[in-house]
Amino acid sequence: MNEHFETNPLIDRLPEHLKQFIKPQSYEDYTAINQAVWRYVMRKNVDYLSKVAHSSYLEGLQKTGISIESIPSMYGMNRILKEIGWTAVAVDGFIPPNAFMEFQAYNVLVIASDIRQLENIEYTPAPDIIHEGAGHAPIIANPEYAEYLRRFGEIGCKAISSAHDYEIYEAIRELSILEEAEGTPESELIRIRSKVEDLQAKSTEPSEMALIRNLHWWTVEYGLIGTVENPKIYGAGLLSSIGESEWCMTDKVEKLPYSIDAAYQGFDITKPQPQLYVTKDFAELSMVLEEFANKMALRTGGLSGIKKLIHSKALGTIELSTGLQVSGVFTNVIEDEGKPVYIQTSGKTALAYREKELVNHGTEYHSEGFGSPIGRLKNINLTIEDMSPRDLQAYNIYEGKHIELEFEGDIKVSGEIITGSRNLQGEIIIISFKNCTVTHNATILFQPEWGTYDMAIGKKIVSAFSGPADINSFDMITHVPTTKTIKATKSTEREALENLYEKVRTYREQHSTEDLEVILSDLIQNHPQDWLLTLEIVELAKQNNLTVYNKALDHLLKVKANRPEIAHLVANGLNLL
């Protein structure tokens, strides 16, 4: 990262592949219009959510130092968040799901620091500081929920993705950017919406990442808590949307008891949700998460685990029963009677034990890939990993000996043993050969001219997961989003309007002597369709018993009548007064 951002011990310990997504917040880029949008949403939300949100929400606003009046600064939030063991970083819109969840595993809250346009004040498909700062941050002040979020990140970042998942991520990221950007041609919106719909409708076997993202959506983003008859809101997507937080409490939205079934319920990020899930309490969230994790290749391993990694076409890891971990892009598995008997990676591969790369087994040494038999020797009840030194000698598995090993599934290894490596329990985890040939029936898998053959030892695959065992083994600066968020354009008219918003904000904060009637006249003459600033003038005039009140209110009601699409927003703002 060349750009400067505020750091702290929690951020310092992040691996470099996560730091690549962090950007400075650039607080000075927020305009007075941005601040007014924040203030309107927060005033409306706090007024409404005090009645329907989980009790942790209002307590969390105070604990995390999030103000109703001003967009929070990351630096100020972090001074308070550190007291509950968390921190926050700014990013540019959506980041890849694995990275998002890995941040959570490090107790780091990811905040898209941009803010929605006034035109999208009720809802935006783009992540923004209202969604993240006013939605996620307050609830993590609840210790039980914070631990669920951390644990979700820890498990979620190990979920195996598919190439289809990343395609959907890129499309949704582009959609969120174009929907939020000013002046996007309708043809472009139609194109990207159609692309997202087509990808979501595509019939594919859902990956682990797709399933766990569903759980994340129906809990962290759109979760309800309590009873089906009387739910409360805790999901950040609902807490940050003044439209959906009211909509979700109506009978038009079906309420379902939360269970692992939510993992198989997809969602459409561009539309209000037709159903929501209600958890009894935060403890139930963790129970369902563990139930899901028990079905993941992370815990089941086996043939299905290695097949998931092959299908993902991405960097992943298998762990054998000896604890040896093989990390790389898996491209092939030979199976026999429903079990893997040989695994193969292509390209850079690293071997590790307990998440630490083994000496002389990094990507430079295994630069062309790695292959090894897995399982038991044929017609021998004792597996190599379970053999004592005396057993190994009896079976001729000994340094300097030429040996032929035949594994179940017709995998044969023939060569001279150079040496072996053991784990902390004394089990052999690697045997190295010279002059070695490896075959599967008539197919040659390794031949002597290729050099030293390193054979992994393990009777079964106990785990398979996304990413490397040792993050230092690979250059992880990959999957950087190809799109950037689009900043609002600065026209002369826009700057003049921002100037008026700034004057009114100064009036409120510093009890300025600025004449509100002059500002209102300018607004009516040059920006007659703007409603939010007129509402703020009405508020200040009423509070200070100013004569401009009637003129401002009359104009606001005219705008409301002329713009039926924002009539409810004006009505809600007046009700707050």
UniProtKB/TrEMBL annotation:
User: Could you tell me the keywords of this UniProt record?
Assistant: Iron, Metal-binding, Monooxygenase, Oxidoreductase
Extract the GO molecular function terms from the UniProt entry.
iron ion binding; oxidoreductase activity, acting on paired donors, with incorporation or reduction of molecular oxygen, reduced pteridine as one donor, and incorporation of one atom of oxygen
Its protein name is Aromatic amino acid hydroxylase
Keyword Iron in the entry? The reply is yes
Query: What InterPro entries has UniProt attached to this entry?
Result: ArAA_hydroxylase (IPR001273), ArAA_hydroxylase_sf (IPR036951), Aro-AA_hydroxylase_C_sf (IPR036329), Aromatic-AA_hydroxylase_C (IPR019774)
- Pfam family example for this protein? Biopterin_H
Instruction: Outline the extent of the Biopterin-dependent aromatic amino acid hydroxylase family profile domain.
Output: 1-342
Please report the organism this UniProt entry assigns to the protein.
Answer: Paenimyroides baculatum
Q: Which Gene3D superfamilies match?
A: 1.20.58.690, Aromatic amino acid hydroxylase (1.10.800.10)
